Amino acid sequence: MNVALINTNRMQPPVGPIGLDYVAEAVHAAGHSVELLDLCWEDDPHAAIAGFLKTSDPKLIGITLRNTDDCAFTSRQSFISDFLDLTASVRENSDAVIVLGGVGFSVMPEAILARSKADCGIWGEGEFVFPELANRIYKNQSYDDLPNLILPDGGLWRRNALHCGSLSDLPAMSRRWIDNRRYFRLGGQAGFETRRGCPCPCIYCADPVAKGKQIRLRPPSAVAHEVEQLLEQGIDALHTCDGEFNIPGHHALDVCREMTRRGLGNKIRWYAYCSPAPFSKELARAMRAAGCVGIDFGADNGSKEMLKSLGRDFGPSDIVNAARWAKDEGMAVMLDLLLGAPGETRRSIEQTVEVVQRADPDRAGVSLGIRVYPGTELARTDTRIVLRLGTNLSTAMAPSRAPAIFILFNALTADTFSRACIFLIESIPRQYFWLTTFMAYSFFSPASSNSCTSIAIPRFLPVVEIGLRFARISPKARSAFGGFPALTFSTIC
After folding, report:
1. pLDDT grade, residue 339 (50/70/90)?
2. Lowest mean pLDDT: which of 59-73, 108-122, 128-142, 283-297?
3. Are 254 and 163 contained in the same domain?
4. Contact criterion met (CB below 8 Å) for 433 and 397
5. Which residue has the higher pLDDT, 415 or 189?
6. Is 244 found in the same domain as 118?
7. Is there a single domain that holds both residue 199 and residue 333?
8. Is the same domain home to 140 and 35?
9. How far is CA 339 from CA 247, 402, 409, in A?
């Protein structure tokens, strides 16, 4: 049976839809014919959809949504409207069964389905249920009982039970279904996955919502084989797509050892997201031997109290040690920080800067505010709207319109330090941020790599510009991270 898969992510620089690559492999292994339309490369996506469906005539169409929005105060760009328009174009040009999926979709599936013209959706991974769905449609059998499906039910949507299959049962990934060479040429790297699921209790993270809390591991041999397939395509710079590569640590070691055994360490350069704990000298040594050249540690904060509030299970000393051990092996180190979470204070900001100085990373990225996703602990927190800035928030905070945010930026220069300016917009429960405001932030001084100064943020200055204006820039940082400043501030969280 003919099956079509459509990538709707058109953001630039381009990021390869690794999930569709995997699903296409699974559908092909089940005996179906697969065609993939990648709208990332199309000037007119609606015309591309019409032309594609006219020639392919599929009986089942899967459409993926990678992100619901850009998670940025400054742009507030939602991707859902465009996604729904593209889904409508698919419906106009085909009477096939339309199924929505993807990580972004899985975070808020019912809300998206209710506004779409799709027949159903898949929450969580699609490599197991989507091929079985194709089998049922081909045999003209009912598929209402399939796990992971979200189906219409009396005007509402019903979620079937979530089933997470063993990743050992996936077919070998050839990575031939999307144009990985083009993504590599224009985006600079390709992704690969070593595990799924996350049991960590971080209050803000949507990864367990979209991928489940149960850790499931890919066989190290399967991971190394996939990397070899990408290398054969001329792709030698990669990045892990795992939430945190080193959870669990023993599997990360096994993956590194298998890649080293196959001689990949001298042929590729790869980067990983890692947690500061569990992290060890042994793992740092193994990662470097396997070809890893850079680690982005999800440090979040330098305050012990804030780390506990965020649900992290490590402390400031773990951050410093992990950075040191990685740097000792010659890997570039980045620390990702979250500022403005519930409980943030001037002192916790100062403690974070102190920890960053002790860790001495090649780069630190700072996010202001935390995007509140449905299904997370942060979304379940019982809060009230605390309105201190004199604006009506009942129509604010959607990614497409958020005038209150600019008032927040204005408040950053106030004479008094505000410890709490926390919003929960109940009228738009799936589109809001949480931000604690404060008067000034500490930056590394451009004059000295060791000194620190506090600089008030100018009124309405886009925060993304601050990293370019007040940043410690070192030759090593330029080399490791493509010339970007060593300390950057953004509103992406």
Report:
1. confident
2. 59-73
3. no
4. yes
5. 189
6. no
7. yes
8. yes
9. 24, 19, 14
Alpha-carbon distance of 414 to 132, in angstroms, equals 58
Q: What are phi and psi of 121, to 5 degrees?
A: -140, 165
Cα–Cα distance list, 243 to 14, 165, 246, 301 (Å): 20, 18, 9, 18
pLDDT tens-digit readout, 431-460: 344 444 332 222 222 233 332 222 222 222
Name the domain count of the chain. 2
Nearest in space to 16 (alpha carbons), one of 168, 161, 192: 192
CA angle in degrees (0–180, nearest 5) for 71-197-126 = 85
Same domain, 353 and 431: yes
Is the same domain home to 409 and 345?
yes
Q: Report the relative pairing of strands 452-456 and 440-444 from DSSP bridges.
A: antiparallel
Q: Are 372 and 399 in contact (CB under 8 A)?
A: no
Q: Could you tell me the two tokens for 245?
A: 């590569």
179, part of any domain? no
* Same-domain status, 341 and 383: yes
> Which residue in 214, 205, 212 sits closest to 300, CA to CA?
205
Do 113 and 204 belong to one domain? no
Among 115, 134, 168, give the residue marking a domain's end. Answer: 168
Q: Could you tell me if residue 410 is inside a domain?
A: yes
Round to whole Å and give the CA distance between 90 and 82.
13
Write the pLDDT tens digit of every residue in 243-265.
899 999 999 999 999 999 999 99
Confidence of residue 375 (pLDDT cuts 50, 70, 90): confident
Which of the pair, 394 or 12, is modelled with greater confidence?
12
Q: What integer pLDDT is reported at residue 76 of this predicted model?
A: 62
Range of the domain at 228: 189-490
Give first-to-last CA distance, the chain, whole Å.
41
Dist. CA 429–CA 217, nearest whole Å: 33
Q: Is residue 26 part of a domain?
A: yes
Give the model's pLDDT for residue 71.
72
> Which CATH number do you get for residue 332?
3.80.30.20
Q: Calculate the alpha carbon distances from 421 to 308, 385, 412, 426, 432 in Å.
A: 20, 9, 11, 16, 13
